[in-house]
Amino acid sequence: MQTPQNKITVRRPDFGLQGEIGRHWFAANPILTHVMNAMHAVFPVGERQFIKSVKVFDAALNEHPELLKSVKGFIGQEMQHAKQHEIFLAKLDAMGLDATGYAKWYGERAFMNENVVSAEEFWLPVLKPFFPAGAEERAMLSFTCALEHLTASLAETLLTDASLVAGMPENMRKLFLWHAQEEIEHKAVAFDVFQNVARGSYLERILGFAFGMYYLNYFILRGFLHFMQKDNQVDFKRLPQAAAEAMPLLVRLFGGVALRLLPYLKPDFHPDDQDNRHLAA
Fold first, then answer.
1. Residues ≥6 apart with Cβ < 8 Å to 194
2. Other C-beta atoms lying within 10 Å of the C-beta of residue 248
């Protein structure tokens, strides 16, 4: 459970994202840049969905005052994350990369929408037999728990290897490290709601993990392809060289994340088992 010592502070930073930034802003490499642009694009919609999945349990949270306080901090931080990434998406729009268009496409297809067949409409019916009471609500919360562990794993990886962000301009580096620090700060909130309020099971948690990892990676890949297609300044003759330069960093980044994901599969896992809060401090 979250404790009063694990205080979650809502910050409202200004990274100067309205200023100029190069089209291939990450190490002058289009592949690295558009992988990160795809993350920028999926963050805001995803974070608002995380908030919704926790707020469903508002009434029951009144019986857990300390956790309710942490939930309010979690919501405040996630709203700020969405806001900062949306500022940057507008910069990408100005470059002709249609970042908000992709974010809208992703939001319609990843989560329930009246007019578009979404991924959620495919995976929720599959999960319902395993989530007998409050199926939809607990399924979405288990999805949030998994992705919060993913973002905390990504955060720890970035905060323990400074070379992973060394090729970013200062404002982008500060943005990603701030986001990483706050992901660690609130890493246990959704999990504590799932375990102690929603009373989710291990099977439900693992199913949320499986679907969450699959769909997030799918939509990041689609985002990467979207940005590569929209970028009329990519020199395709140089792409093999750009890939060779990008690959070592991407292997270290995603390899580090994958190793940190594995403890989630343990039946007795809790996010606080991974002692990384000093990185946020």
1. 138, 141, 142, 144, 145, 200, 205
2. 10
Mean pLDDT by 10 residues, the chain (281 residues): 64 84 95 97 94 95 94 96 94 96 93 79 84 86 96 96 94 94 96 96 95 94 97 94 97 96 97 89 79
C-alpha 26/C-alpha 18 separation (Å) is: 17
Q: Which residue matches tokens 């974070």?
A: 47
Q: Where are the alpha helices (DSSP H) in the chain?
A: 30-55, 58-61, 65-94, 99-110, 119-127, 135-159, 170-185, 189-196, 202-230, 239-261, 277-280
Q: What span, in angstroms and rounded, lies between the C-alpha atoms of 24 and 174?
A: 17
Q: The tokens 């700060």 sit on which residue?
A: 185
Indicate the SS3 state at residue 24: coil
Entry pTM: 0.92
Which residues, 6+ apart, have CB-to-CB distance to 102 below 8 Å? 41, 222, 223, 226, 227
